[in-house]
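Slide 14.
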Amino acid sequence: MGGYLTYEDIRKKSDVLNESYELDVSIFEEVVDELLESEKDTESIILEGFEKLLRSVDETMTDIDSFMEMKPNCFMGCAFCCYFPIRVSKMEAKLFFRSIEHMEPDRKEDIYRHWEKYYEKFPRKLEEALAIEEDDPEMKWKYKQLNLPCPMLDEEKQLCKAYEIRPVPCRTYVNYSDPTVCATEHMPKETTSYDFLYNFYFQGINELVQALYENGEELPVDYPMDAWSYDYLPGWIRQYQQGEMHV
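Slide 15: predicted structure.
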């Protein structure tokens, strides 16, 4: 692998991370506190909170990289992780769609047209993917082998159509080693996923929405039910696209 870090290098640094790194939870807490103390309307509070908490995950990832003195070798145009299963709550899905509805008209319509083509192109693969049980120990492997792209991936450009609001799993999967392993293997051992960051992000979202709910505000989600209902992102998008989910 030339000058790239080996799997053993990454494992050793990860051990140090697990033993010594202290996550700064205030990054997430301050977003919630600042918005709840503001005079902004409910819509703005929720959508700003959703997007700022996602960026807080990015900030934490940068801090982790700095702590370990490592830099991801992921690059624009590499869409390897865009073929992994992405599961999100119904609450997150609704906020995701709400954010898209607030985009510039041309961009929003481009995404909607992309979805129409996507669901026409991959009907069989989608049925197979959405039938994979979440608790199946081989869930990720089975999903990845289908080679089913995320509904947000522009396959021609190999870029996400809503990169700034991409879900947490898309932000926390990185490769510190030779980037070619992503092109040659379905599940390369060299890659790293900081799944635990989802809990801090989701806690922030839940705290924000819960406070507004308890205050009697009108919400774009059915709280608390939407917070604990999970599915694959393509499943939520299909429901939204077919008019079965209103936000």
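Speaker note: The beta strands are 87-89, 153-154, 159-160, 173-175, 191-193, 230-232.
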